[in-house]
Amino acid sequence: MGIFGTTCPRFIYNHGGGGEVTVDLTYGIIQRSEPTTDYVEQRSAITGDRDLLARGTHWEVEVKYHLYKHTTAPTPAGKYSTIATYKGRLVTLYLHADGAPFYKTGTTDALFVLKEITPFFLTTTDYKDGLILLFVSADTVLQA
Q1: Which end of the chain is more exposed for a tag (fewer CB within 10 A), N or C?
Q2: Is residue 106 part of a domain?
Q3: pLDDT band at 1 (very low <50, low <70, confident <90, very high)
Q4: CB–CB of 4/93 below 8 Å?
């Protein structure tokens, strides 16, 4: 078993609120999960020394999703429609459904935006049957 979980990625819209919706990315594969720390540089005019102050760490997660594997309900078109509904919305992201979400403080979930949904040709050149999903953190992330 992996230390952060072993199952598929998942995101939850309106986590903890009324109308909470969970979307499992059953056929999703994490391609990239990278932190980016934002620094402010302060340079001394006299000595030239500099201090770097960390303002926070943001995270980008890219998921390759295999739409063609949906052979029964939901259909590939149905699953695409479900995912596309949340483009530009704030969601709670789990790298693995059986693991913990990203946190911005001790136990407060960090929010992510589903920034991009890019369809692409995966198994055939007749139609696009794969998606690249890009999630970017709206909050600074304490831990992943």
Answers
A1: N
A2: yes
A3: low
A4: no
Regarding beta strands 108-109 and 103-105, do their DSSP bridges make them parallel or antiparallel, or are they unpaired? antiparallel
4 domain residue, yes or no: no
Q: What is the pLDDT of residues 17-49, one digit of tens each?
A: 888 999 999 999 999 999 999 999 999 999 989
Within 8 A by CB and 6+ apart from 95, the residues are 4, 5, 9, 30, 33, 61, 102, 144
The domain in which residue 126 lies consists of 10-137
Sign of CA pseudo-dihedral 44, 47, 48, 53:
negative
pLDDT digits (tens, 9 = 90+) for 66-99: 999 998 889 999 999 999 999 999 999 999 999 8
Residue 50 burial (10 A CB sphere; 0-12, 13-18, 19+): exposed
CB-based contact 60:136 (threshold 8 Å):
yes
CATH number for position 123? 2.40.30
Structurally, how many domains does the chain consist of?
Answer: 1
Asked, for residue 5, whether it belongs to a domain, the answer is no
